[in-house]
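Holo prediction. Input below; ligand is 2'-deoxycytidine-5'-monophosphate.
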Amino acid sequence: MFDIPSLDIPSLSSAGGRVRLPGSKSISNRVLLLAALSDGPTLVEDLLDSDDTRVMLAALRQLGCAIEEAGPASVRVQGLGGRLPVREAALFLGNAGTAMRPLTAALALMAASQGARFELSGVPRMHERPIGDLVDALRQLGCPVQCLQTEGYPPLRLGDGAPHPLHLNEPIRVRGDVSSQFLTALLLALPLVAQEHDVVIEVVTELISKPYIEITLNLLQRFGVRVRREGWQRFTIARGSRYASPGRIAVEADASSASYFIALGAIAPATPGTDGIVIEGVGLDSIQGDIRFVEAARLMGAEVVDEGNALRVRRDTWPLKAIDLDCNHIPDAAMTLAVMALYANGTTTLRNIASWRVKETDRIAAMAIEGRKLGATIEEGADYLRVTPPTAWKKANIHTYDDHRVAMCFSLAAFNPARLPVRIEDPKCVGKTFPDYFETLFSVCHTPAERIPVVCIDGPTASGKGTLAAELASRLGYHLLDSGALYRLVGLAAEREGLSTTEADLREPAHAERLGRLAAGLDVRFTPGKTWLEGEDVTEALRTESAGMAASRVSAVPQVRTALVDLQLQMRRLPGLVADGRDMGTVIFPGAPLKIYLTASAGQRAQRRHKQLISKGIPAILADLLADLEARDARDMNRAHAPLKPAEDAVLLDNSELDIEQSVQFVLKRWHGQQAFPVR
Ligand code: DC
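Structure of the complex:
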């Protein structure tokens, strides 16, 4: 998750490989509820991990349903079989509409039939989201339902602790023009009480969002409940219906999220050695409405092949074909077409998209404004968008309006032929449906190394490089290379193998070769905040003064330096790298666009190190530290191979009088000035 003000995506050149997308939110929460209402256990796989599903899991557990983790993204739900072990509870449901609506229906029915009492509440925004149509339907059935603050809105009290007879002989009437979730809630819950009667639901208005009702009916069928549907007006749940667990059920990957990777496969040339993009967890037989995005992508020229619960996408027609399409059936995924249109051979028109105006933001306006920043010509109508690709692409910072889809869409502009990077503001907004979107994107995108930015931070020991580099990496969302750690690792590994690291021994050619081989074969792994040598956590051992001294000695051995070059070059990965060391700017990344050389005096550095050690309760003598520092400086600067010195084009930064934040700001200012993204 990139929790930073903005993320710069370098110009990208190709894509290929497999992605696994998060599970569909709509399916996840429906399945959890159905599994909880069924008899016996259900293994739910590929569950979405998001705010909404966490709320549902917590509520079900509070109701007495046993749910255990069963591997990554899997849970085992012990169904309650429609019986309530807990008869009184207050459930907090956050802002999860997909938990509030179905739980209201299920708990109101169970509270009335079994004698129980529940209170359901959420965040303030949840208390502004209407639920009156569902409350009306439940009251018709004879369920006691009380709106505790405002009539028609949560918080709600369901039941009063006593059993109440239910009126199941008459059709239950519900409106379907505010939210289809009210009908979904009734459909999911009424099989609980359809033992002796057929239960009929009548929709008394037009029904919106029909594809979501299809998901509900489909999942009910997977749990053994058949619903007879007459048009979109009348739904009958047969007498004697019972939820029957399918035993195991996998949640499909989210089809709307898939649209970005389908578009990616259509836009990006396949990386050599790959055969396009494979999206796992969703196939053409998906029960989600947005799967029909595939038809639109094919019209524009994508090759999409169903590989059985997976889609393979390859670029086919190029440039893409401009289209003129009614997008009413795929309102969310159609935004992705607006970005594909930037790569088309003419003007694309997306019609019948008025609903875009009332989503997370006014999406018609947002796509038009941001697309124009890239150089496209965009005409915006009340319910349409007409996109003509840029003739000259422009460097743009994309504002994202707290709308996950705007952010995900415009990331695909990084394939522009002008090879310009794209800046995405507030990238963490993707967390609404796809927290790891950018990580997933970068895992299958490729670009020549020279397009991946590197910020080099070189300087003498104890100059504060490490802290500065780590801070910059986290502010820019870049990877971090602590090259000193590699030399420290070699020193440590040598010690563990019983190999001497004295200067005299290291001058022996055969010994130097052995150390080189040791460095080339290092079994090292980096995880956030930890370093592992041969499977052992050596983070602390690496930070000791003696490891630093050993590192300084082994780093003078040319064979060791050469052996570590590839490892360092491989760290240059999307979206960028901050590299800290002695020769980052001079030897490893000589073409880096920004090189900083820290120049605090030895006296200052010794004092800092002294303070640091004392604060940790480690005894230290200032004069000894100064002598050690000077010895290391001398060795690092005077060695024949890759000596410590500023690169010719390095920016010198004397941070003696600066605190960390001031140094960070100094570098960020240079960096952003150099990137020259237009200001809004
Ligand atoms: O930055 P540090 O103190 O962790 O580095 C330990 C030693 O490794 C340092 O004394 C010199 C050496 N080193 C190097 O030669 N080249 C680098 N790029 C990084 C560190």
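The chain has a mean pLDDT of 94. That is the main takeaway for now.
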